[in-house]
Amino acid sequence: MRIAVAVLIGFVTLASTIGLETILGAFLAGAVISVVDRDTATHPHFRLKLEAVGYGFVIPVFFVSSGLRFDLGALTEDPSALARVPLFLAALFAVRFLPALLYRRRLGNRAATVAGLLQATSLPFIVTAADIGLSLDVITPVTAAALISAGLLSVLVFPPIALARARGLATPAPAQGAAPAGRPEVDAVR
């Protein structure tokens, strides 16, 4: 575990030093560890521990550092930036929600809608892409702030709507041979 964290820190530092996004360094560290550690039989809880460190520490650090770089001033200084936020949110919704319509046949309208809403959420990719765009002078700080705001709104708005739509979706059938679990008054009607 200590070696894995050291490799992570090494690759993140290397990526940062040569001007790449730190998340790329973290990805490369994971790829190297995956290649080196093919046999988990000798340490079966390694991957579980590594995921705990990743989700409990590394990912929050990424979002904290991304939040520190978020330029709220650029968003509030330019009135056109605020108009871009709903535009970017609608584009994100269209690009990531519409493919879920392909699921309708297999899952039904309601489940496809839930899947589409959950697919439409995006923040890490947008934060990373905006940061890279800023580094390369391809996008302006105003555009980056509007993009990140749209991504943030997608994470805040779409999942609650999806969860509300998911309520009442069919629950998995009980295992074969098992008595159906339900309310006695409903079971009596069956």
In terms of topology, how is this protein built?
Layout: H1 2-17, H2 22-36, H3 46-69, H4 72-77, H5 79-97, H6 104-107, H7 109-119, H8 124-135, H9 141-166, H10 184-189
Characteristic terms for this protein:
single chain, 190 residues, mainly alpha, 2 domains, 10 helices, 73% helix, 0% strand, disordered C terminus
Give structural notes.
- The structure is a single chain.
- With 190 residues, the chain is mainly alpha-helical.
- The protein folds into two domains: 2-37 and 46-69, no CATH class; 72-166, no CATH class.
- It is 73% helix and 0% strand.
- The protein is built from ten helices and no strands.
- The chain has helices at 2-17, 22-36, 46-69, 72-77, 79-97, 104-107, 109-119, 124-135, 141-166, 184-189.
- The longest helix is centred in the last third of the chain and has 26 residues, at 141-166.
- The protein is flat.
- The N and C termini lie far apart (54 Å).
- The relative contact order is 0.09.
Task: Please summarize what this structure is.
It contains ten helices and no strands. It is mostly helical and 190 residues long.
